[in-house]
From TrEMBL:
SUPFAM superfamilies: Homeodomain-like, Nucleotide cyclase, P-loop containing nucleoside triphosphate hydrolases, SMAD/FHA domain. Residues 478-518 are annotated as: Disordered. Residues 122-240 form the GGDEF domain. Residues 501-510 have a biased composition (Basic and acidic residues). Pfam families: AAA_lid_14, FHA, HTH_8, Sigma54_activat. Residues 244-473 form the Sigma-54 factor interaction domain. Residues 18-67 form the FHA domain. The keyword Endoplasmic reticulum does not apply. This is Sigma 54-interacting transcriptional regulator. Keywords: ATP-binding, Nucleotide-binding, Transcription, Transcription regulation. It comes from Pyxidicoccus parkwayensis. The keyword DNA damage does not apply.
Length: 576
């Protein structure tokens, strides 16, 4: 396409239509004022492209002749839309000028580039591109990007399905931002919901993982069709009234998954230990969904007294049971048009589970003491710290409800497996506590941070928050020291310690010096973690390897191979 002084290459879809025009809803947008908002449509069927004038002001000409009706196009035809020229190229597809690197290859190119940043005081940008649904093969999108403004030195990598990362060496932040915007615009006809995040070195960090994570976190908060810049609060994800810190690669992936799930109407099941942030994850689904303007209600099913669970969820009529002095709508009705978060769903009795299943299947509820059915439009996000599949096996959870709730399962890792997030969360909670208590912000000493990072955090993020609230109250100077932390943080568990043993909370003054850390070969630890995650994924998906592999982003063949190597089984052995 030749427009003014610039030219660009735009791939045609293999089948279907492409509307060209100046309007914001055109698939191929042109700036030139001589082009109408919806000027022409190119339809491709069975390998033949035809152009149709959409009653444009300045008409469509092919090789100088004005088009009437649907005009077939041939290789080399020159099409004029007002003053804009398009030349149809039906040659065999030209090779992409940018090979698509895999995760590891991209990572090592970025690491090399970061060395040059240090040595020659250069800058580099990393763009994370979330394509959303796209209508052309990925190779065509890379080709379009290659011809749509990427320079030869830029590097394109793939992070996952529909996720690209682009390395932009030697660009200032502003230039990198322009490139990212141009990229989103170039891909718009084929990926209309694409959005991007940008991080730059040295400003946002000098570590390849950190930069990629920062760009991906920025992309998470970018509205469709736009670019978000990673800012001073690099890992803060603003989700309306909540701010969530997302820094660890596994958590970035999970939040990307949640954003994708949000646009569907699927029920989501969140699995994670207590305090890992399950409610925040449920909120994220709500915030990113079309229901964001509706209510978000959360209930912890473990706190519902059996007798009241049904009325809390589905409501009751006056006199339905002793104590029902007035008619009351239940949470399903109150959450109409929005999202209902059922925390600790495994704690519901079998009787209430049956009613919940009916409400989900029929989208109707009946209040206690009433015979009338009422329609409800509610999206359910459920959470549990238990392995629901095991609960099903033990007869404590209905299998049909398990299948209904677990169409999309998200596993939140415990905080101890998110090492990058511990210092960020600790600082954020300390800052919040100081602001709340009206005291100046506190620094955290290296020794205190070391203790925080080495701790096991059985209570996860909630426990860390509690510790930082308490530390803010204990600290008497400008720096938080180990003496302001509870004694329990000084105790490192030996490998065979019982993980759920209660911890001693002693006064901070009476402390022993920290026990020396024990180390194991890293490969051994990684194998153990991998095995554990695979087992959890299997259990969360009812033992279906294909689904389990997808859940943790592992190719199915690798999963199947390691399944044998690790002697995994569909279910974990019950705890003795
Ligand atoms: N990534 C995060 N960034 C900021 N705050 C967080 C994050 N994760 C959790 N929190 C905070 O930690 C606390 C516990 O989180 P949350 O209630 O979401 O956990 P949960 O897994 O739902 O817990 P439970 O299983 O006990 O219901 C909350 O105050 C929450 O705001």
């Amino acid at each position: 396409m030749f427009e003014g002084d610039s030219s660009s290459l735009r791939p045609l879809p293999r089948h279907g239509d492409l509307v060209i025009g100046r309007g914001s809803t055109a698939d191929l947008r042109v700036q030139d004022a001589s082009v109408s908002r919806h000027h022409a449509r190119v339809s491709v069927t069975e390998g033949v492209a035809r152009i149709i004038d959409l009653e444009s002001h300045n008409g469509v000409r092919v090789n100088g002749v004005r088009v009437e009706g649907a005009q077939p196009l041939r290789n080399g035809d020159v099409v004029m839309l007002g003053d804009v020229t398009l030349v149809l190229n039906c040659e065999a597809r030209p090779r992409a000028t940018h090979p698509l690197l895999d995760v590891n290859a991209f990572h090592s190119r970025l690491a090399d580039e970061l060395e040059r940043v240090v040595r020659y005081e250069r800058t580099v940008g990393v763009v994370a591109l979330e394509l959303g649904p796209f209508t052309a093969p990925l190779a065509d999108l890379v080709l379009a990007a290659s011809h749509g403004g990427l320079r030869r030195m830029d590097v394109v990598g793939q992070q996952g399905p529909g996720q690209l990362v682009i390395l932009l060496p030697e660009l200032t932040r502003d230039e990198a931002e322009d490139s990212a915007r141009q990229l989103v615009e170039t891909l718009r006809p084929f990926a209309p919901e694409a959005r991007a995040g940008l991080a730059t070195a040295p400003r946002d960090g000098m570590d390849a993982d950190a930069l990629i994570s920062a760009a991906r976190t920025a992309a998470l908060s970018a509205p469709t069709g736009s670019v978000s810049l990673s800012g001073p609060n690099l890992y803060r994800l603003e989700l309306g009234e909540r701010t969530v810190i997302v820094a660890d690669a596994a958590m970035v992936r999970i939040y990307e998954q949640l954003r994708r799930l949000a646009s569907s109407s699927l029920a989501v099941l969140i699995h994670g230990e207590t305090g890992t942030g399950k409610e925040n994850a449920a909120w994220a689904v709500h915030h990113w969904s079309r229901r964001a303007q509706g209510p978000f209600l959360a209930v912890n099913c473990a706190t519902l007294v059996e007798a009241l669970a049904e009325s809390t969820l589905f409501g009751h009529e006056r006199g339905a049971f002793s104590g029902a002095a007035s008619t009351q709508a239940g949470l399903f009705e109150k959450a109409h048009g929005g999202t209902l978060f059922l925390d600790e769903v495994a704690e519901l009795s079998l009787a209430v589970q049956a009613k919940l299943l009916r409400a989900l299947d029929q989208k109707r509820i009946t209040r206690l003491g009433d015979s009338r059915e009422r329609p409800v439009d509610v999206r359910i996000v459920a959470a549990t710290h238990r392995l629901l599949a095991n609960e099903v096996k033990a007869g404590r959870f209905r299998e049909d409800l398990f299948f209904r709730l677990s169409t999309a399962v998200v596993l939140l890792p415990p905080l101890r497996n998110r090492p990058r997030e511990i210092p960020l969360l600790a600082r954020a909670f300390l800052e919040e506590a100081c602001a709340r208590d009206g005291r100046p912000p506190l620094d955290i000493s290296a020794a205190a941070m070391e203790l925080l990072c080495a701790f096991h955090w059985e209570g996860n993020v909630r426990q860390l928050k509690g510790v930082m609230d308490r530390a803010a109250a204990m600290a008497d100077g400008p720096v938080l020291e180990p003496s302001h932390l509870p004694d329990s943080l000084q105790w490192q568990e030996s490998d065979d310690a019982e993980p759920s043993a209660p911890r001693k909370e002693a006064e901070p003054e009476t402390r022993a010096s920290p026990a020396p850390r024990t180390f194991r070969p890293i490969a051994e630890e990684l194998r153990e973690l991998e095995r554990q995650r695979m087992q959890e994924a299997l259990e969360a998906t009812g033992g279906v390897q294909k689904h389990a592999a997808r859940l943790i982003g592992m190719p199915l063949r690798t999963f199947a191979l390691k399944y044998k190597q690790y002697s995994l089984s569909r279910w974990s052995r019950p705890a003795s």
